[in-house]
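Write out the 3D structure for:
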Amino acid sequence: MQHKKNIRRSSFFKFKKIYSSDYYNVSFYRGWHELSIFRIEFLKNINRKNLLNKYIVRNDYGIEKALIISKGSSIIKKNKYFTKKLKKFDCLHTNKSFKNLEIQCKKGSQLFIIVGKRKISNNKKTIFFNFEKDLKKINLWGGQCISRVFHGHKFTLVLFRLKKGFQFHDKGHKNEQITWLIKGKMKFYVKHKNTTLAANKKSVDIGPFDFHGGRSFGAIGFDAFSPKRSEKRYS
């Protein structure tokens, strides 16, 4: 897949549909730093081998990836010795290739795949975890925003739940921040632009040191940061 060089500035975006069939839709967004994000929505029950390698990433051995189930469930198989069932908010983090990976998904399921750009050492282990069951709560904004933080090798992923009426203002940071919702909506501004973020609709990519903030109507979503956050409050 060919890409134009991205400009380091904030923008609101919609995931761009790159493949559509009777069984699933694949949408894509490429950030300005080192992240690409894919969204796959399953319209029917499916059992398919090499689906991820065909439409998501090729020659991906050594590339850091995180596969997150945001809705429904999935079963992934690599060979007769590897089978894993994934439920809501389960995550697979790996730098192993998706080639020959078989995936089974129920109708109505949705998953996101966050992909890094540079290869990391090839001896990294594949890990599985659930954002809500295995990661501690972090109270980043006075109890109105409950976050669960995962640090990969090159990126940080955050699952957040925002209470209705929650408001915040961030002075900005060096990291790229890609934010998308999977439920609910919120008013959001970055510098002097503003819009409404909503699940499966508008999302935001924040440029370096751009101030941003907003007001929640009740929302659940994800942040992807690159490079990974190093501040103490994210530990």
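The helical segments are 51-55, 131-134.
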